[in-house]
Specification:
The chain is α/β, with parallel strands linked by helices. It has four helices and five strands.
């Protein structure tokens, strides 16, 4: 099961999480987003408590979508210790997505500290 987050809960659910967090930015009109969701849920079941899955509706959370510079949906962001450490955009296949997630999540589960973020973005502080 994935958690739902919005601009008011993002900091607590994602940035304050003690485990790695996959944030799935999606929108109701996005067909690929609907295809990706079951795969993310099955990976969460497969890898048990290795990560937390959080869904964010990009249409309803424009400030977050803007802050993380979303250019396409779905976009999946991986956070570790409150820092953005990986981003997946332009999902072409289930296998490609699974391989990419496996690589980064396995790295996170073996090194729960010390990941160098690929992008530094200030946390969302609200309106």
């Amino acid at each position: 099961m994935s958690l739902k987050a919005d601009e008011s809960t993002f900091e607590a659910e994602v940035l304050g999480s003690p485990v790695p967090v996959l944030v799935h930015f999606w929108a109701p009109w996005c067909g690929v987003c609907r295809l990706v969701e079951p795969l993310l849920l099955s990976l969460q079941d497969e890898w048990l408590s290795s990560f937390r899955l959080v869904d964010v509706n990009a249409d309803e959370n424009f400030r977050l979508a803007n802050q993380y510079r979303l250019t396409t949906l779905p976009t999946i962001l991986l956070f570790q210790n409150g820092e953005l450490c990986h981003r997946i955009e332009g999902i072409n296949s289930r296998d490609g997505l699974k391989a990419s997630l496996a690589k980064y999540l396995n790295d996170c589960s073996h090194q729960l500290v010390g990941l160098e973020p690929s992008i530094k973005i200030q946390p969302y502080t609200g309106a």
